[in-house]
From TrEMBL:
PANTHER family from the UniProt entry: GLYCOSYLTRANSFERASE, UDP-GLCNAC:BETAGAL BETA-1,3-N-ACETYLGLUCOSAMINYLTRANSFERASE-LIKE PROTEIN 1
Enzyme class: transferase
Organism: Nocardioides ginsengisegetis
GO molecular function: CDP-glycerol glycerophosphotransferase activity; hexosyltransferase activity
Keywords attached to this entry: Transferase
Full protein name: CDP-glycerol glycerophosphotransferase
Positions of the Glycosyltransferase 2-like domain: 12-171
One Pfam family this sequence matches: Glycos_transf_2
Length: 368
């Protein structure tokens, strides 16, 4: 008896599109040129004001693997959710329309999932900057060890891998876990990826599966941290993710999440403190107190100067926090380390160290 060849799994790709006419062709080309050929690409034109919708339609006209859904503008989360309503594949993944995927990306993820039986897989990424491709050191660290069918207690630090688009999900898992993307808020990736890591078994792969384009024109969401709405959205999505981890109720996972994951990007906001508006400072300070007030950022995985800044924010010492950030920026290098009777600490002469909790100045053994 002869048996037919097993059908290759179908990968559904959701591509939300808004004002990306300059980058969309390269994005779609990378999806359609994957070594894993069995793909359906669902492009959601989210009311784009430029020619992005027409570009997507032209791809659909010449390649039956592409379908385009045109909607009014509702934002990234809503566009991804709309795309999910149209997918039919065994697996689902996400691709932002100004980025690209390396040619072996989806075959690598599919091969791992077919072998492990996991609910989803995640690979490393590189930032595509003007001077080339760079793998973030923290991302390389999270993905250094190949892990198959892991659970969150095996590798709680992986909660720091918050991206939507370097992951491939078994569609049956996505639907049974009730996953979706928050709508009407920026930074929607973290709440959903957090829920996925808590709910499923996953593969962690060292291979780079995504090229994240870093725009230099100031238009991307991650380049607008000085705005009040950006900060409000950041706090809201952190709040949502923290709530999920608290409900999971594993003390070690919660501690690692709060100290190493939730605090991880605060330094990007601390750099905005000098000259920030009063309302922005008040929102920053309130959020830090809400999420770390009973523990303090001095216990976090932030670099030493940012742990100090976090403590100053907790204490509502705005002028000192601004002085520290300006001093650090002016140095152009890590602040000096010195040793006194209590051990190693950072030396920041722009504030009175005797007015600061010693723990906020301390340098850990690996930081000396």
């Amino acid at each position: 008896m002869r048996f037919g060849r097993r059908r290759a799994p179908l990968v559904s790709v959701v591509v939300p599109v808004y004002a990306v006419e300059a980058w969309l062709p390269a994005c779609l080309d990378s999806a359609l040129e994957q070594r894993h050929r069995d793909v359906e690409v669902v492009v959601v034109d989210d009311g784009s004001p430029d020619e992005s919708g027409e570009i997507a339609d032209s791809y659909a006209a010449r390649d039956p693997r592409v379908r385009v859904v045109h909607t009014d503008n509702h934002g990234l989360g809503a566009a991804r959710n709309e795309g999910l309503r149209h997918v039919t594949g065994d697996y689902v993944t996400f691709l932002d329309s100004d980025d690209v995927v390396p040619r072996d990306a989806w075959s690598t993820l599919v091969r791992s999932l077919e072998g492990s039986g996991s609910d989803f897989a995640t690979g490393s990424i590189v930032r595509w900057e003007s001077d080339g491709l760079h793998e973030p050191p923290w991302m390389r660290r999270l993905h250094a060890t190949r892990r198959l069918a892991a659970g969150i207690t095996d590798h709680p630090e992986i909660l720091g891998d918050v991206f939507a688009w370097n992951k491939m999900f078994r569609r049956s898992f996505w639907e049974s876990a009730g996953l979706s993307w928050p709508e009407g808020v920026r930074y929607e990736d973290q709440p959903t990826t957090t829920r996925a890591f808590l709910a499923g078994r996953f593969d962690v792969l060292p291979e780079v599966v995504y090229h994240w384009r870093i725009r230099d024109d100031g238009t991307s969401i991650t380049q607008q941290r000085s705005s009040l709405q950006d900060l409000a959205d950041r706090w809201e999505t952190k709040r949502m993710a923290l709530r999920s981890v608290e409900e999971y109720a594993d003390p070690r996972v919660l501690e690692i999440f709060r100290d190493r994951v939730l605090a991880g990007d605060l330094h990007r906001y601390f750099t905005e403190i000098p000259g920030c508006p009063d309302e922005w400072w008040s929102l920053l300070q309130a959020g830090v107190v809400e999420m770390w007030g009973d523990r303090s950022l001095v216990h976090s995985g932030l670099p030493p100067v940012h742990r100090l800044t976090g403590w100053l924010v907790e204490q509502d010492r705005r002028a000192d926090a601004a002085a520290v950030m300006e001093y650090a920026a002016g140095l152009g290098r890590p602040v000096d380390r010195v040793t006194d009777d209590e051990g190693p600490r950072i030396d920041v002469p722009v504030i009175d160290r005797h007015s600061v909790d010693r723990a906020a100045l301390a340098v850990r053994e690996h930081e000396v």
